[in-house]
């Protein structure tokens, strides 16, 4: 049996057995299981099957605003913002939030879902929202989205264009 797997013979010792049960531990990644036939005339070549743990794919890109300036708490007012990814049946999702970003799901009703509803504390400047997908085989790679509270840009230079001549100039 490959590392992280245990083979059981449901019909006893495994002699003359055509069925096995394999239990895969959490640390199983991949391996090969082989079988041979043996009789009075000799031993056959080994027939093998390769097995790989199918980890979830990285979630699709996260949807939601990246400039969150308009959503940062001012006084006692705050707005809830939703970030989401495409849902894949059979997956649950774990979200992690940077400092200054708060999960608005105070009752835990959205745990494991493909979206998260958040609000931003007044001091929030920037950070990264992360999400991973999980299934019975393990966890995906992390999908990340950089978010910032970008202040308003400085207006461009002011230019003057005279429209009247002296002494009653106007611009």
Beta strands, count: 13
Question: What assembly state would you assign to the polypeptide chains in this entry?
Answer: single chain
First-to-last CA distance: 86 Å
Report the radius of gyration as a whole number of Å.
30 Å
- Averaged pLDDT: 87
User: Structural class of the helices, strands and pairings?
Assistant: mainly beta
Strand content range: 35-45%
Strand count, sense and barrel status of the largest sheet are: 4 strands, antiparallel
The percent of residues in helical segments reads under 10%
Uncertain parts: none
Global shape: elongated
Structure annotation, total helices: 0
Q: Order of helices and strands, N to C?
A: EEEEEEEEEEEEE
Task: Tell me about this structure.
The structure is a single chain. It contains no helices and 13 strands. It has strands spanning 5-8, 21-24, 30-35, 38-39, 42-43, 47-52, 81-84, 92-96, 101-103, 115-120, 126-135, 138-139, 143-148. The strands form 5 sheets. Strands 8, 11, 12 and 13 form a 4-stranded antiparallel β-sheet that branches. A 3-stranded antiparallel β-sheet has the order 7-10-9, with no helix packed on it. The protein has a two-stranded antiparallel sheet with strand order 1-2. The chain is an all-beta fold and 171 residues long. The chain is elongated and about 120 Å long. 0% of the residues lie in helices and 35% in strands. The protein starts with a strand and ends in a 23-residue tail after the last strand.
Q: How do the strands and helices of this protein lay out in sequence?
A:
Blueprint: E1 5-8, E2 21-24, E3 30-35, E4 38-39, E5 42-43, E6 47-52, E7 81-84, E8 92-96, E9 101-103, E10 115-120, E11 126-135, E12 138-139, E13 143-148
């Amino acid at each position: 049996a490959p590392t992280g797997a245990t083979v059981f013979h449901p019909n006893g010792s495994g002699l003359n057995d055509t069925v096995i049960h394999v239990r895969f531990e959490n640390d199983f990644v991949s391996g090969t299981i082989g079988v041979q036939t043996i009789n009075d005339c000799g031993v056959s070549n080994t027939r093998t099957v390769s097995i790989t743990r199918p980890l979830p794919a990285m979630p699709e890109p996260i949807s939601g605003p990246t400039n969150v300036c308009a959503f940062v708490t001012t006084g006692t007012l705050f707005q809830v913002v939703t970030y989401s990814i495409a849902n894949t049946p059979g997956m649950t999702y774990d979200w992690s939030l940077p400092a200054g970003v708060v999960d608005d799901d105070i009752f835990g009703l959205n745990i494991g879902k493909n979206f998260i509803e958040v609000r931003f504390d007044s001091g929030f400047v920037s950070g990264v929202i992360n999400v991973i997908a999980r299934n019975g085989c393990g966890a995906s790679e992390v999908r990340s989205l950089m978010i910032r509270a970008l202040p308003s840009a400085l207006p461009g230079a002011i230019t003057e264009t005279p429209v009247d001549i002296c002494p009653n100039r106007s611009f």
